[in-house]
Specification:
By secondary structure, this protein is α+β, with helices and mostly antiparallel strands. Helices cover about 30% and strands about 35% of the residues. The protein has one domain: Hotdog Thioesterase (Thiol Ester Dehydrase, Chain A, Roll), CATH 3.10.129.
């Protein structure tokens, strides 16, 4: 993932991914080529450093039986980023179960996720919100109904 051009050329680095894809940490280094006009972190890079990760964590946690898409996003710039910044994502098991339960009947589920972009000392530079679309795939819905019918018989 660190070799993906939008990350590579903007000094965005995934620092850690847990084996079960429930947690992930990412950093954005401040470099001369990724600063904005006033020499602070470029807002587009602050958003880019957080963009795919709620979707990726959710995809790995829920598995292939679900459609998972980014639906919406928002960023609130809190303070100028004058140094390297970091974001840590943690997808709690209770949230994964909540998504499974809400999508069990095939309904679309829309859920917001939040992450702060912070400096090494913990100063918040930006707050990012991403909304995910989650839906159980039709084939998985059919298999689930058939399993329930078989176990009832």
């Amino acid at each position: 993932m660190n070799l993906w051009p939008p990350f590579l050329f903007n000094s965005i680095r995934v620092q850690h991914v847990s084996e079960d894809w429930s947690e992930l940490s990412v950093a954005l280094r401040l470099r001369p080529w990724n600063r904005n006009y006033v020499r602070t972190q470029f807002g587009g890079n602050l958003f880019a450093m957080t963009d795919p990760f709620w979707m990726l964590l959710t995809m790995h946690q829920l598995g292939n039986d679900y459609f998972i898409w980014d639906k919406a996003g928002a960023i609130d710039f809190v303070a100028p980023g004058r140094e390297d910044v970091y974001a840590h994502f943690k997808l709690e098991p209770s949230v994964v179960q909540e998504l499974r339960d809400a999508a069990a009947g095939g309904e679309k589920v829309l859920r917001w996720f939040d992450v702060d972009v912070v400096t090494r000392s913990g100063e918040v530079v930006a707050r990012v919100r991403k909304q995910l679309y989650v839906r159980l795939k039709p084939k998985a819905r059919t298999e689930s109904v058939e399993e329930r019918q078989t176990s009832a018989a």
